Structures are given as structure tokens and as C-alpha cells.
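Hey, I was hoping to borrow your eyes for a little while. I'm sending you its amino acid sequence along with the C-alpha cells. Take your time with it, there's no hurry, and the full record follows here.
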Amino acid sequence: MPGRNGRYRRKGVLDMKQTILYIFICVVALTSCKSKQTLELSTPINIEHKYVPEHSPNVFLVMYNAEIGKDPLLKAIKEYGCDIIYDYGIINGLALKKPESKTLEETMAYFKKVKGVTHVEYDNIIRLTDPVKPRLEIQ
């Protein structure tokens, strides 16, 4: 059918717009009628993960005073029968392996008494899968 200006009017265009508008109104009406649901939160799971540092059973760290030097420490290492695993030159420290005949604790106690030694500590093992916690939570 010719419309104004002699053009043919597309019959389906207006019907399609009306159909889309009708569907939109129905969807909005149906979703707004949905009853409100309340969500109940489950009780939180309280898992206490205490950080217990793991340390090497044979290796420990010794820090020494740079002014005194490491000569007294090297002498004590040779006398006691320890092996040097690593020399941390920049921080004045050594990683030592205890002798097989001694325990780690008695070896560490011996090196605390050596002249020039400022600190003796365990060689802690930190795994990449360990949870990271701020220092305040660890204490």
C-alpha cells in the first residue's frame, strides 16, 4: 500500500517495535514481582593457623662483629668440627653445618660463647606455600 509521498510503508516495522516493547514491559513486571529472599550467612569457620617456623636440623647461622673479625670464629669452627656452608660476607655471617656427633642446640650454645660472635640462630626454612602474616599476628 502506498503511504504518504508515494512510498510503501513496511508493515512489520511498527509491529516489531511494539512486540519488543511489550516483551520488555512483561520482563520488568515479572522480575519486580519476585518475592524478596533473605540470605542467611553461615557461621565463619575459625581456623587458627599458628605459624611454627621450621628450621634445618643440621645448619645454623652465626653473625660476628666486623671489628673483631671472623678469625676467632674460624678457629672455633675448625676446633669444633663444623663445616662452612655459606659465607655471607656482606652481612658478616656464616651458615654452618654442625658435626654429626653433636646436637644442634649444644653446637649453637658453644658458638654463642665464641669471641666476636654477636648472634646465633636457626636456619629457618620458609616455603612459598606458607601463609604470609604480618609480624604482629605471629607474636
Notes: The first strand starts at residue 54 and ends at 64.
